[in-house]
Amino acid sequence: MAPPSTRRPGFSRRAQYGLFLGYVVAVGGILFALLLLVVATVDPTGFRALKGAALDATRPVSAAGHGVSAFFTGIFDSIGDYLGAGAQNEALKRRLAAERRALVQAKATELDNRRLKAMLKLTQEVPDPVAVTTIVGSSFDSVRRLATLSSGASSGIEPGQPVRAPEGLIGRVIERGRWASRVLLVSDAASNVPVRLVRDGTPAIATGHGDGTIDLKTLEVGRNPFRRGDVLVTSGIGGVYPPNIPVAVVAAIDGDRTVAKPLADPSRVDYAMVLRVYQPVAGEPLSPRTTQALQGADQ
Amino acid sequence: MSRIAGSTRDVAIWGFRRQTVPILTTLAACLLDLLPIVAAAPLVPDFAYLVLLAWRLLRPELWLAYMALPLGLFDDLVAGHPLGQSMALWTLTFLIFDLVDSRVGWRDYWMDWFFASLAILGYTAATWYVARVMGSRVDAMVLAPQFALSVFAYPLVARGVIALDRWRLSR
Prior knowledge:
The complex is a heterodimer of chains A (299) and B (171).
Chain A: H1 13-42, H2 48-62, H3 66-83, H4 85-120, E1 131-133, E2 135-138, E3 146-149, E4 162-164, E5 169-176, E6 181-185, E7 192-197, E8 203-208, E9 214-218, E10 231-234, E11 246-254, E12 257-262, E13 272-274, H5 288-298
Antiparallel strand pairs in A: 1-13, 2-3, 3-6, 4-5, 4-13, 5-6, 7-8, 7-10, 8-9, 9-12, 10-11, 11-12
Chain B: H1 8-31, H2 47-58, H3 68-79, H4 85-103, H5 109-133, H6 144-169
């Protein structure tokens, strides 16, 4: 149907101006919101105070406890388990086989380690975690994979710090309030974790796929170095994640594409440990001298 | 309760209820994001957007388009979306529905559902694009189950909103 020739709400000037002003405000608001989005894209850490305050304000609701979280997640899980019992059985069998292989590997590595350490007279140094906390929520209705922790700046948590569970790596802190913080999970498509294959040390990048799985990318051309059941650990390259934290196990191989499953399932882990950035220097800007040298190399 | 207001207090209470129920239900739907559910894949529909759509389609005269700005800001802050995402998309939705309403003479249940599905599709695609710009290069197919669930959840949400609307206007 053709629109009416006039959109005037009536003869009242006040009503006409009110309607017009409403549209002006709406369009102006959209432009302002788009500007905010551009700022958020250019500088993801912007509006830190505002977002931190919102995190803190909503924490009492979501920090009802891990029991509640497990209950709610359990509802979805048990439905999924019921539907996928057969496939799960198959997957578990595969995983058991993979795990057995990994165990043998680990025993061999441990022996090797002990021998090398004895040679170097090194003691393994495990740094203290910044905080031990619980995961209390996630962005379950959005395309991003983010989780909420129930501690923040008051426990010493800073953006950039890696988060792990006993089972494996969970992700990295991206926002923090005073009593709550937000974690970018390893399964988010914006998360890139440098990993290496436990079996032979092949380096790779683990990028999230957005649906709970992880894509593995390696520099090797022509041949896929991964096998189903391979375990990947952080390599320590890049200086954010400490080395040797388990990250994922290879679940499926499809030509060049390798799909892995994270070892730490954020909905099941009891505790999340926030660690210090492995090499804090890595996050700092380059020194003037280095910058100069690099620019010199460019010219 | 008597159907005739017995005092100015009754009138005030009913007036307050009539004006605030739509806003409060939308804000409550935003707060659903705080439920302690940890999910590996996006499956659960964005109920805040569904409730907003349902109110807009049921009562076009209720809100001017700019009402979506503060509601969207609240959703951005609570859900942890990049600031401005819901603000822009929700207001845009309202403007588009104003255009649609001026073009389409009447709407029934099926057309409401059809327009809501289109809006959900646009909204899902836009959030996907924003995530992509922000560095999260997700395969679009990952969002397909969530889109399908949202489309089928809309009639249920609309039912709830209609019941609330009846209660809001009852006396």
